[in-house]
Amino acid sequence: MRQSPFYIVGIMCLAEVLTLLGVFTFPSLMPEFIETWQLSNTEAGWIAGILLGGYALSVPVLVSLTDRIDARWVYLGGALLTAAALFGFATFASGFWSALLLRMLAGVGLAATFMPGLRVLVDRYGGEKQARALAFYTSSFSLGTAISFYYSGEVGNALGWSEAHMIAGFCAGAAALLVFVTMRPITPAKPDIETKLLDFRPVLRNREAMGYVLAYCAHSWELFAMRSWMVAFLAYSLTLQPGSTAGFMAPTVVVTLSAFFAMVTSIGGSELADRFGRRRMVVIYLISAGLLALVLGFLAALPYWIIVLLVILYAGLVQLDSAALTAGAVMAAEKGRRGATLGLHALIGFGGGAIGPLVVGMVLDLSGAGLNVTSWGLAFASMGIVALLGPLALWKLRGQSST
Predict the structure, then answer these.
(1) In 10 A of CB 366, how many CB atoms?
(2) DSSP state letters, 46-63
(3) Which of 12, 114, 115, 238 shows its CA 20 to 30 Å from the CA of 145?
(4) Which pLDDT score, from 0 to 100, does residue 227 have?
(5) Dihedral sign, Cα of residue 379, residue 380, residue 385, residue 387
(6) What pTM, to 2 d.p., does this model score?
(7) How far apart are CA 197 and CA 144, in angstroms?
(8) Do 100 and 50 touch, CB atoms closer than 8 A?
């Protein structure tokens, strides 16, 4: 029985949001964890970023497997592993090392769901609007982020961080059941020339794809550094304004709103890229976000409502290129090598995402422990500098027909 594109995209986006519910619980409650476990900013950066480290280390194998077996099976294993990691964090996490290990395990679960979930979608929907379907799926990452931040802040404050992780674990298990029941089994297409598992040489020779892969690394570095430290930045900004309170604009609420806005800009950015040239528009997006990052941290002492607006704007600019970059890599992939291309795309991209939060924590510790405006200014500037390297990669590795 043929499944409609709306049904396929809707189910996979819902499952994605369910698996992401616990991904940003630690960053959302980072100030509490730093105080309770007596963590340095560098240690907090390690815990925030190690999830992406686990992702980057495992994603080449997991996504490359989708060229050989139905991505649905990889996804199911990843959703169940995500649930186990969240249950483990709720039960056993008690400090730096236990949190680090369990967050890394959650990263492996994310590696087996995010990109394999994209493969589940594209293998079942090959219509003319595939790029739009990809945009909805990748932008749902921002929806999942928004819900994760808001959920973590509200449930964490009301019930505690352990209960927040436990509930998120049940939601990840529900995602596994949803995909198992609804997505029909298929056999993936075979490449014209067979290669060994993890042989990325054909992908590395594909200049068009590699341009998007390296730009995605810059994007992910900035994106996950921002998401990991934005709550702490907003909390610091509030300390500079004696007598004022966040009111209904608490840091976790602001980050939630910024993620919702980012979801909209991701879809809009993809549409503009399809109309005016994917590569050209991605360059504009990266430069815009990078330039704002260079100054945002230095503005921490401005009135809080201005900081809130700037944070929401920044989140939107960062996410403009997300769907367009992934769609670019998928469209540039050779026949039968979508899994390998997405695997390398995720390995390099999320490798940058793992390093970004750690580098920000190190910059904070080296420049005043995040206790002054200059410290935060330099931290955000480090994100902006990396973002500005993305356009260079796209320019150097453009194909003859690129726009």
Answers:
(1) 13
(2) HHHHHHHHHHHHHHHHHH
(3) 238
(4) 85
(5) positive
(6) 0.74
(7) 31
(8) yes
